[in-house]
Amino acid sequence: WEKGGENYQVQLLADDKQTVLTDTLVAADTIQFTGLEMLTTYYAQVRQICAVGDTSIWSNPVRFTTTCPNVFPLPYSEDFEGYASGAGNLPNCWDGFAVGTTTKYPYVYTTAKKDGKNGFYLYRSTSYYSYAVLPPFTGKVADLMISFDYRNANTSSNKGIFQVGVATDVTSIE
Question: How many C-beta atoms lie closer than 10 Å to residue 14's C-beta?
Fold first, then answer.
């Protein structure tokens, strides 16, 4: 497919690349889709309408994923399933960082599990530590509750510290 005309047919496809969610005729070379679900993968394809009954072939579908919301609605739950295991892998819209090491802590990890396939691995030693940064949530902090299972894999007194806190600016965490 090559751009060259004035009229186009654009299709928005579901993640299976088969289900057409929107089929639109446009007379411009840009389109804005509305009403998309957050954190969802879609595909778009386009073809030129040259004349009645004369169209180009469809372009290759282009993959895109919608972004994280500014604030997550409650209730919120994360079971770490569906993510690859290993350094640098975080749940959607989470962030994490480590102080004192270049290793990409924290991360989703298969051996850090309780009941499911994956768990979430945070690491601390005498010389470095890691932080998990969850996405922002709606509501007041005083009204929120967090629940999780914790397993300390080391009995050394300097490695078993686990703290939960609230930050409005994660760049100021020390």
Answer: 13
